[in-house]
């Protein structure tokens, strides 16, 4: 993730990533109490643009607030620092990782020692370009009554890691996790949509991370005249779907081939998700969504 000359922003300083250090007694390291973001920048016709920086940093502020972490940076400051980070590292199409972590403290209470790290690197689409074979996970997403599920909390990702590891061990590409009621929630690092009879379905907010890509898909669907319905549904309903896809900053829009060995009817190229994936690429690079050839 970093090279010899990679710079990171840490607590007001620009440091070489290879020289930055952390305290071994940091609370985030021991208990997972920290918050983070995953953001992408793209080379566009108007120079390098951080896609939806405001939405990402507002979510970071929300995540910090509900976890009782004092994040004393504004959305504007964080956005400016992000552009500086990209410039200092000569990055265009990059993945940006802001991490807010807590310093030395072994008590079960957030410490006032709050650290802010901004790092970035070049990263291809997280799940690649192949259509994914999913398995319904034996792990549920954390119950929203056990944590702030709409916050991007470091510790929540142990659940994601367990689910992905299980899926891979069983020979699948990725997991699909259910909520505490047995309805489909989301992937380990992405939101889920399926297509049935030319309508898109995704679960409502409440038991999932409120994805910024998910919201972008709502906007693009409206522009393309695609209907999207938010409702709860089970894996059995997904088995009857025509197509499905994941949405997320790291995965972008990733086509899904099958769930639990049941292949979807439509070829990815003939699905609404495919059109949305083209529209998304054009949107993040600020090109016209109708001009698919440009991608
Ligand atoms: N759900 C989870 C659990 C995630 O980790 C992510 C990635 N941040 C998403 C959904 C998608 O969110 P976004 O589109 O904002 O990247």
TrEMBL record:
Q: Mind telling me which Pfam families this protein's record contains?
A: Aminotran_4
Q: Which residues form the signal peptide?
A: none
Its required cofactor(s), as named, are:
pyridoxal 5'-phosphate
Instruction: Report keywords, A-Z.
Output: Amino-acid biosynthesis, Aminotransferase, Branched-chain amino acid biosynthesis, Pyridoxal phosphate, Transferase
* InterPro entries cross-referenced by the UniProt entry: Aminotrans_IV, Aminotransferase-like, B_amino_transI, BCAT-like_C, BCAT-like_N, Class-IV_PLP-Dep_Aminotrnsfr
Pathway(s): Amino-acid biosynthesis; L-leucine biosynthesis; L-leucine from 3-methyl-2-oxobutanoate: step 4/4; Amino-acid biosynthesis; L-valine biosynthesis; L-valine from pyruvate: step 4/4; Amino-acid biosynthesis; L-isoleucine biosynthesis; L-isoleucine from 2-oxobutanoate: step 4/4
Taxonomy, superkingdom: Bacteria
The enzyme class is transferase
Catalysed reactions listed for this entry: L-leucine + 2-oxoglutarate = 4-methyl-2-oxopentanoate + L-glutamate; L-isoleucine + 2-oxoglutarate = (S)-3-methyl-2-oxopentanoate + L-glutamate; L-valine + 2-oxoglutarate = 3-methyl-2-oxobutanoate + L-glutamate
Does the keyword Transferase belong to this entry? Answer: yes
Concerning Gene3D superfamilies, the annotation shows:
3.30.470.10, D-amino Acid Aminotransferase, subunit A, domain 2
Q: Name one GO molecular function term.
A: branched-chain-amino-acid transaminase activity
| The enzyme's E.C. designation | 2.6.1.42
* Protein purpose: Acts on leucine, isoleucine and valine.
Which family is this sequence assigned to?
Answer: Belongs to the class-IV pyridoxal-phosphate-dependent aminotransferase family.
Know the name of this protein? Branched-chain-amino-acid aminotransferase
Q: Which organism does this record belong to?
A: Pseudofulvibacter geojedonensis
């Amino acid at each position: 993730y970093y090279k010899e000359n990679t710079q990171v922003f840490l607590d007001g300083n620009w440091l070489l990533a290879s020289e930055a250090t952390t305290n071994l007694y940091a609370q985030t390291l021991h208990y997972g109490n920290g918050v983070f973001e995953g953001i992408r920048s793209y080379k566009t016709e108007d120079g390098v643009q951080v896609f939806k920086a405001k939405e990402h940093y507002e979510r970071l502020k929300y995540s910090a607030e509900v976890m009782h972490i004092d994040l004393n940076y504004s959305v504007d400051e964080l956005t400016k620092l992000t552009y500086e980070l990209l410039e200092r590292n000569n990055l265009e199409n990059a993945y940006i990782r802001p991490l807010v972590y807590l310093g030395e403290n072994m008590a079960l209470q957030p410490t006032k020692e709050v650290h802010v790290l901004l790092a970035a690197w070049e990263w291809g689409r997280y799940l690649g370009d192949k259509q994914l074979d999913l398995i319904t996970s034996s792990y549920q997403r954390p119950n929203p009554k056990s944590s702030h599920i709409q916050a991007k909390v470091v510790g929540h990702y142990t659940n994601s890691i367990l689910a992905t590891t299980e899926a891979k061990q069983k020979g699948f590409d990725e997991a699909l996790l259910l909520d505490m009621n047995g309805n489909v929630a989301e992937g380990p690092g992405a939101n889920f949509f399926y297509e049935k009879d030319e309508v898109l379905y995704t679960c409502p907010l409440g038991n999932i991370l409120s994805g910024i890509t998910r919201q972008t898909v709502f906007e693009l669907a409206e522009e393309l005249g695609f209907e999207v319905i938010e409702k709860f549904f089970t894996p059995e309903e997904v088995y009857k779907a025509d197509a499905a896809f994941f949405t997320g900053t790291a995965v972008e829009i990733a086509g899904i081939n099958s769930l639990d060995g049941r292949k979807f009817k439509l070829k990815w190229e003939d699905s609404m998700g495919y059109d949305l994936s083209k529209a998304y690429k054009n949107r993040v690079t600020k090109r016209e969504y109708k001009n698919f050839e440009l991608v």
